[in-house]
Design the sequence.
């Protein structure tokens, strides 16, 4: 995975009625940010923090600096060996060598991932293997894939881009990366993991399955839709599309096609679309024509293969609507006419449902985020593994087994801070077997009772990676899949004899989700180049292909009578719950299994095989780990700019009133552990000198923010227009805050609590009526308590369909109470489902009480939309919103714009105010204000930019004044 845009950063520009047009300066700034720097502030990506108690070591190899938790030395050195082994092959593939690259190792996350980031440049890996991964060593996968990203992006630091890096630091190369398509970056990395290993996703049938089904059952989508997704249809992601495009390019035009693309992006970014000109050298008229050309090649190949296959007869139980992409996974038989399945899709969050042969469904339960995605059922009990967040640290989380009693509806957790995956209930329904993945990268097979107590914990043989445990009949042994550098195996563990035994080696064919019935073991397998259900007979050591699916068959289960098999059967509208009659005479023996022709270039070349075999005999490097001092490495300048831009508050900087970039200089720092970020800036504006600085500390439980701005004239809040105050350009503003982000484990709900305390000082000038004179400087304290809990959303939801949010806020000036007084507010909002899917009704109540001194505070709650400047001592506000999607047009005007969704929000606001400020010199009076109207928004992507834009208008009617206000709405979600 490669990131060059920070999450949770949006630009909300909502001009007032007095400034309804978006100023040209802001439009120019957005163009500057989106095109010249491509991502600007966005590439300073922060994935999260490890626990503050973690102590770190580090060492250097020839091309990498490894930073890792103390005690993980062996794993870190092993990973460094893999990085260095593959490095020369990566460098040769792209004709580039990079300098020393920092690598951060995280071992306390329960998910599997790798992230390469530029600005500050680093590779972050998470050591927990994918519980459903194919036969590939996880560290090998990370070393190849993320190592390829390191070469890709560092290759851009040449020519024109290198010159920019002297001017702007690492952010220059991070910005130039935006000229390379995301599908190329990920597709080329997937190609590397495929060419340099026996497996890789490029050899997995399921990896191309989505595109294959789309082309053979539907059609090719527009290029913009293929790149940017859809709310209406399932679209294969940029990894899947990218790999197919990269391989097509290498087959038809050679490796230099992609090398030249990188060189053009680095050396000629001023061409605006350098990739167009690089591909034009090879006769490719556009990326769109290249995309259509590639898809035609694949469609022809897949269509020919399909015409040579016979699809086995089967019955589809699930009845998804034609326009709804729905998945039915892990069918479990209740009786010969009833299944329990895990259902998910574009338009719904995952849920366990009961499904009968007529296609009728009944919801049983909605789980939280599932790690392996698998569940197991025996009798009245159902178990699964669920992701559980740490209270504070995003890089520390857990995998906990949850158990549902379907008779009572009660759910309980079997433990709390565990790392258990893929649980399976015994046939007797009295025990649970699971895989334990420990933080030291060791793997155990664990047997638990229903209280979560460990009955038996067994280390994996040779520390091979364990997956997919299941019980043998009579519960006397457990069957698992194991994989290592030699491929994948079926092993049994005897509970009585305490002994592991290998029973089948699949080579580098992926096998998954085994199921035992007497001497027969059923599982999903990739032997024919299409995922199908296979059966291995332990008495005869013979293998048979049970199904012949059109695109893929997965996750077998046998009905109680033993006459039918159920499985997930993939098609372009999702995974269907399918069943077939078990007729062994129709099974295909191993020697007659169709040849593996589905994946083009499935076989490795001689050069690639030499690289693959060489990994088996890597010579360990000589490393000397030493402690890594977090304090001494807390400052890490990585980027700068010979201009001033407010990176600490980009949303405020992008105001519609003025151009946000000024003369000056900016220096940016973010340490490699992402616990300390800061900025130092000098600004020259309107003939004044300004100094801006700020820092955020995230290495401890509370998060600390500190910011200081100096320069320019202080604001003077006069009370009489005849007053004259002498001021100097020495304004000082300081603000700081401390807050405690706390996340709770609430299953299908996302629950978050954050108390916050803030202090601010400004040297502005105010009037003190007690002394009938002006004074300089004020200190203010504010306190906020934020809480939210909402149902997780699916892709089509605009807002959570169920949830609650509450905010309490208090601000005062304890040293200047007669001048400023205080303000207190609280609000609560409730989301409930609308009458149709993906519609949300939001009810909000807010109350604010203000005791002003000589001056009034700005409101801390919203006032009716379309109104401005309302202040009062006691304000009560009611709001009603009805948010709904209108249309999913998926309309593209290539390459200018791609329109994905049109949505609306119908709303009404009502405010009751006591002692409202009616203007200077007027007495306070009670007032009522209301407004109602609607927002109309268009979600779109301009010029195939990866992040979505939203643009539209707000139409507000004010009954009190019979005024109609129209406002422009604009948002960029990065």
Sequence:
């Amino acid at each position: 995975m490669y990131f060059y845009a920070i999450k949770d950063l949006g630009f909300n520009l909502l001009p007032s009625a007095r400034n309804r047009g978006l100023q040209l300066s802001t439009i120019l700034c957005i163009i500057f940010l989106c095109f010249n720097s491509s991502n600007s502030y966005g590439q300073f990506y922060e994935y999260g923090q490890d626990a503050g108690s973690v102590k770190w070591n580090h060492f250097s190899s020839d091309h990498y600096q490894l930073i890792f938790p103390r005690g993980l030395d062996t794993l870190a050195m092993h990973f460094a060996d893999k990085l260095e082994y593959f490095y020369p092959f990566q460098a040769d593939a792209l004709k580039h060598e990079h300098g020393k690259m920092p690598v951060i190792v995280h071992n306390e996350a329960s998910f599997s991932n790798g992230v390469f980031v530029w600005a500050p440049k680093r590779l972050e890996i998470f050591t927990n293997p994918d519980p459903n991964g194919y036969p590939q060593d996880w560290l090998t996968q990370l070393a190849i894939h993320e190592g390829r990203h390191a070469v890709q992006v560092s290759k851009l630091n040449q020519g024109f881009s290198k010159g920019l890096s002297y001017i702007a630091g690492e952010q220059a190369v991070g910005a130039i990366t935006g000229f390379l398509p995301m599908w190329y970056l990920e597709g080329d990395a997937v190609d590397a993991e495929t060419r340099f290993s026996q497996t890789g996703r490029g050899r997995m049938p399921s990896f191309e399955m989505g595109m294959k089904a789309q082309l053979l059952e539907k059609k090719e989508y527009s290029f913009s839709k293929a790149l940017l997704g859809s709310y209406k249809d399932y679209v294969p992601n940029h990894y899947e599309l990218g790999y197919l495009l990269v391989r097509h390019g290498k087959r038809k035009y050679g490796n230099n096609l992609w090398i030249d693309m990188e060189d053009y992006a680095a050396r000629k970014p001023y061409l605006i679309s350098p990739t167009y000109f690089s591909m034009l050298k090879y006769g490719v008229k556009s990326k769109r024509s290249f995309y259509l050309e590639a898809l035609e090649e694949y469609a022809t190949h897949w269509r020919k293969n399909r015409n040579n296959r016979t699809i086995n007869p089967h019955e589809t139980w699930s009845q998804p609507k034609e326009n709804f992409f729905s998945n039915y996974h892990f069918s479990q038989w209740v009786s010969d006419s009833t299944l329990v399945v895990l259902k998910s899709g574009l338009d719904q969050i995952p849920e366990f449902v009961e499904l009968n042969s007529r296609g009728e469904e009944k919801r049983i339960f909605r789980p939280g985020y599932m790690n392996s995605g698998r569940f197991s059922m025996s009798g009245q009990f159902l178990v699964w593994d669920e992701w559980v967040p740490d209270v504070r640290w995003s890089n520390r989380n857990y995998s906990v087994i949850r158990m549902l009693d379907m008779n009572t509806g009660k759910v309980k957790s079997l433990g709390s801070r565990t790392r258990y995956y893929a649980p399976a209930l015994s046939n007797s329904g009295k025990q649970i077997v699971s895989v334990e993945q420990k933080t030291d990268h060791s793997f155990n097979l664990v047997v638990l009772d229903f209280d979560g107590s460990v009955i038996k914990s067994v280390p994996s043989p040779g520390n091979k990676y364990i997956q997919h445990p299941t019980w043998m009949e009579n519960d006397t042994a457990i069957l698992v899949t194991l994989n290592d550098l030699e491929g994948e195996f079926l092993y049994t563990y005897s509970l009585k004899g305490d002994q592991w035994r290998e029973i089948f080696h699949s080579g580098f064919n992926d096998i998954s989700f085994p199921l035992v019935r007497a001497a027969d073991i059923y599982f999903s397998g990739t032997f024919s180049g299409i995922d199908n259900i296979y059966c291995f007979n332990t008495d005869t050591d013979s293998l048979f292909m049970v199904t012949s699916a059109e695109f893929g068959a997965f996750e077998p289960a046998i009905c109680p009578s033993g006459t039918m098999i159920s499985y997930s059967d993939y098609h372009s509208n999702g995974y269907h719950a399918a069943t077939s009659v078990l007729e062994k005479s129709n099974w295909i023996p191993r020697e007659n299994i169709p040849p593996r022709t589905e994946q083009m270039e499935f076989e490795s070349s001689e050069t690639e095989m030499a690289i693959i075999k060489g990994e088996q005999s890597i010579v360990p490097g000589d490393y000397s780990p030493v402690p890594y001092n977090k304090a001494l490495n807390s400052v890490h300048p990585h980027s700068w700019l010979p201009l001033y831009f407010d990176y600490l508050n980009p949303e405020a900087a992008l105001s519609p009133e003025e151009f946000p970039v000024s003369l000056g200089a900016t220096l940016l720092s973010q340490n490699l552990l992402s616990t300390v970020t800061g900025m130092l800036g000098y600004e020259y504006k309107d003939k004044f000198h300004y100094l801006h600085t700020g820092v955020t500390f995230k290495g401890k439980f509370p998060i600390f923010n500190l910011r200081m701005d100096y320069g320019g004239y202080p604001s003077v809040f006069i009370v009489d227009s005849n007053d004259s105050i002498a001021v100097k350009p020495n304004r000082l503003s300081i603000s700081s805050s401390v807050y405690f982000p706390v996340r709770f484990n609430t299953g299908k709900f996302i629950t978050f609590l954050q108390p916050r305390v803030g202090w601010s000082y400004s040297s502005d000038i105010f009037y003190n009526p007690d002394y009938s004179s002006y004074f300089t400087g004020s200190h203010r304290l504010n306190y906020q308590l934020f809480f939210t809990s909402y149902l997780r959303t699916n892709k089509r939801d605009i807002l959570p369909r169920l949830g609650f949010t509450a905010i309490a806020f208090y601000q005062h000036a304890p040293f200047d109470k007669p001048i400023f007084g205080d303000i207190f507010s609280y609000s609560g909002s409730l989301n409930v489902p609308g009458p149709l899917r993906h519609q949300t009704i939001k009810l909000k109540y807010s109350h604010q009480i203000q005791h002003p001194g000589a001056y009034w505070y700005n409101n801390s709650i919203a006032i009716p939309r379309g109104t401005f400047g309302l202040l009062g001592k006691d304000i009560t506000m009611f709001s009603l919103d009805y948010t709904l999607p209108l249309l999913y047009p998926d309309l593209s005007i290539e390459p200018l714009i791609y329109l994905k969704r049109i949505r609306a929000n119908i709303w009404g606001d009502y405010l009751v105010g006591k002692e409202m400020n009616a203007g200077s010199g007027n007495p306070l009076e009670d007032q009522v204000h209301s407004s109602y109207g609607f927002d109309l928004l268009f979600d779109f992507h301009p010029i195939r930019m990866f992040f979505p834009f939203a643009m539209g208008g707000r139409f507000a009617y004010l009954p009190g004044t019979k005024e109609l206000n129209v406002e422009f709405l604009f948002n960029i979600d990065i």
Observations:
- The longest helix spans residues 73-94.
- Residues 2-43 have pLDDT under 50 and may be disordered.
